[in-house]
Amino acid sequence: IDAFRRASAHSITAVIPYFPYARQERMARGREAISARVVANMLELLGTSRVMFVDIHSRAIQGFFNIPVDPISAMPLLAGYFRKEKFRNAAIVSPDVGRAGLAGRYAEATNLPLVVMHKRRTGVDTHTTHVVGDIEGRSPIIIDDVIASGSVLKQLDALYEKGACGKAYFCITHPVLLPTALEILDSDDRIEKLVVTNTVPVPLEKRHPKLEIISVAPLLADIIQRVHDGVSISDRLKGSIY
Description:
alpha/beta; seven-stranded mixed sheet; 8 helices; 28% helix
């Protein structure tokens, strides 16, 4: 960005599919950095004119900027995968209350019922205490924005105890995929597919047989072209606010 500014670029748009430190948008405990705000400050101070990101973890991060922000969503691409006939007997599942709004948009886009799980934290671990919605006789499609350690993959027990059947699918935008997540994919036969996008590059050593990668390149290319041409992108952002 500094090089572009010094080369007298007319405007600089930062396209950041996976926004750094997006989970550190507040102080969970005392004496913690609000790192997402630090990233926003750096981008602005360097001379960025506009920022685009995909499926941000917390929508409040948009307010950290004093420049235009385009909160793009991969939801239309991912939801399209689950509009196939074989998913007619499935249900969209939110892994916690915080993702319920996002899950609701997936349910609306796929015309599938919505189920919400409630988690409770005990020390460093979390466990599911309630499942709200009718999952009995349906295969679960669990949605989320980021998968790193793979803790979301461990939440299937509560769903199958409530009568879920068939194989489970996970639909998650950003595949950080630490080794523990790949180990869970290996060990749990109930997981059929983990459907992700390429907002985070997945190296060959992480290309698990259960991994399905959908490219966001056409979506980003269309939006970049519209911004360059001065054309409205409002219709592309309708699915982004939750």
